[in-house]
Specification:
Elements lengths: L5 H42 L3 H6 L3 H6 L2 H15 L2 E12 L10 E10 L5 E9 L5 E8 L1
Antiparallel strand pairs: 1-2, 2-3, 3-4
């Protein structure tokens, strides 16, 4: 019986390490994709003027931070200042466990490069919170 050379063993180990890294990355990917899809759906509610629905579709944490009527007024006034959506593209997604002023959890900080009719260059940040049920819901929204 022939014993594999150390070069073959280290090559096989490197191949296995790459495979495991790619496999774990692809296993983590669906939650990121689901989070981005949920954020995009939520932003569409705002784009279409469904402000109360955006509040109801947000996380319990979000809803505990701002009453529905105040959210509707605030987002309505903001969107009047920004104008209609002209374009939006995904800029970045970052998974974090902690955020200032929020309980520890599984968050995705999703940023979009956006343009509006009255503001041609903006960064929209949507913070998604992964619930125990595996669903993502908005925990925060900022425009700069």
């Amino acid at each position: 019986m022939r014993v594999p050379s150390s070069r073959w063993i280290s090559g096989a180990a490197a191949t296995l390490a790459i495979f495991l890294t790619l496999s774990s990355a692809s296993l983590a990917q669906p939650s990121t994709d689901v989070g981005v899809e949920a954020a995009t759906y939520w932003l569409k509610l705002i784009d279409d003027g469904y402000y109360p629905e955006s509040w109801h579709n947000a996380s319990p944490f979000f809803r505990s931070q701002i009453p529905e009527d105040k959210w509707v007024d605030t987002i309505g006034n903001l969107r009047k200042l920004l104008g209609g959506l002209a374009g939006r593209e995904l800029a970045s997604v970052q998974a974090v466990k902690t955020l200032p002023g929020a309980p520890d959890g599984d968050y995705l900080v999703i940023q979009f490069r956006s343009s509006f009719t009255a503001k041609h260059s903006a960064i929209e940040t949507v913070i998604m919170l992964l619930g125990k049920d595996g669903r993502s819901a908005v925990a925060g929204y900022f425009v700069r």
